Amino acid sequence: MLCAGQGPEGTHVAAVVTPDDMRQHHPFVEGLQNAGIPVTPVIVGGRSYMRECRLLSSLLSKLNPAVVHTHGYRADVIGGIVARSSGARTVSTVHGFTGGSPRNRLNERFQLIALRHADGVIAVSRPLVARLVQAGVQSRKIHYVQNGFAPSCTLSREAARAKLGIGADALIAGWVGRLSPEKAPDVALEALARSDQRWQIGIVGSGSEEAALRRRAAFLGVDHRIKWYGALPNAGSVLPAFDALVLSSRTEGTPIILLEAMHAGVPIVATLVGGVPDVVNASQATLVEPDEPGMIAQALDRIATHPIEAQQRAARAASRVADGFQATAWLERVSAVYEKVLA
């Protein structure tokens, strides 16, 4: 969305670092190419840091960009070093910190060190602003810019249910995301076990925790109430199939799936983490504390027994995303960050 939106203003080239085992048909690269966006895949091994530096340095010497915009800890560290050595200004968007394994925490520590040297840092939620200041990033460099949203085509409820194989009368909640601890799919399974027996859940996503989650579902006796869809391209298009969206995360930035669910008019149950409270309030979604599956179960049962009330909240959420998260305004705020670091 960033590349496509800035395209009319000038040449915007995306350099995407991809793992060596995905030389062809990388979905993100293909998405950029299909949108007509110039893209240069930088193909390296998982720990080929010197090779990555050389390739990026060669690319930047040809492009001579004014600003290099990085996303993610590896890009912030390696891309940031290479960009600054080439004389470009650097901007990073920080989408969130997940913690987790010791190695991941170490990577995030290196990322925070790198962010201190960036010319501008975009934080997508207020808690991230505080985290960056605490880590030593100068407040004058930090810019709070919530994610923007460009509505994509969503299917009708009937078409989405047909695509996902969901019966017309089924009562089903959707869960969409990476199957990893910070997204808390385990909490969603626990909530399902405590909810009305009519509820099913459709899990859209893949990740390292899938095998453990399937075992947990069997232990809880809810495996027959779960549909596993894996990762789906353009998952937001099928959200109308669901009677509710469950966002059970333990940590978040400003989750795009939340904006997509608001646009789709799906009743939302979300945890009060990260930027979620800045996106929706209690009149637009049911907000619960993290790691509280009982509260999620109660919220789902309330949606089942009071559907008109749930739809009224969903309608207010749809108005909120239409009015407050327009892509045009978001692009202008990002461009303003570029202009500030260049000045």
Taking all Cα atoms into account, the compactness measure Rg is 21 Å
DSSP strand content: 15-25%
Distance between the termini: 25 Å
CATH topology (fold) name of the largest domain: Rossmann fold
Proportion in helices:
40-55%
Which CATH top level class of the largest domain fits?
Alpha Beta
The appropriate CATH architecture of the largest domain is 3-Layer(aba) Sandwich
Order of helices and strands: HEHEHEHEHEHEHEHEHEEHEHEHHH
Count the helices. How many? 14
Shape: globular
Low-confidence stretches: none
Q: CATH superfamily name of the largest domain? A: Glycogen Phosphorylase B
What is the number of beta strands? Answer: 12
Structural class: alpha/beta
Trace the largest sheet across and list its strands. 9-8-7-10-11-12
Task: Note down, in words, how this protein is organized.
- With 343 residues, the chain is an alpha/beta fold.
- The chain has 2 domains: 2-148 and 326-342, Rossmann fold; 157-324, Glycogen Phosphorylase B (Rossmann fold), CATH 3.40.50.
- 45% of the residues lie in helices and 17% in strands.
- It contains 14 helices and 12 strands.
- It has helices at 2-6, 27-34, 49-63, 73-85, 102-116, 126-134, 157-164, 185-194, 210-220, 256-264, 276-279, 293-305, 307-324, 327-342, and strands at 14-19, 39-44, 67-71, 89-94, 120-123, 142-144, 171-176, 199-204, 226-230, 244-247, 268-271, 286-288.
- The strands form 3 sheets. Strands 9-8-7-10-11-12 form a 6-stranded parallel β-sheet, with helices on both faces.
- Strand 5, helix 6 and strand 6 form a beta-alpha-beta unit.
- The longest helix has 18 residues, at 307-324.
- The two termini are 25 Å apart.
- The mean pLDDT is 92.
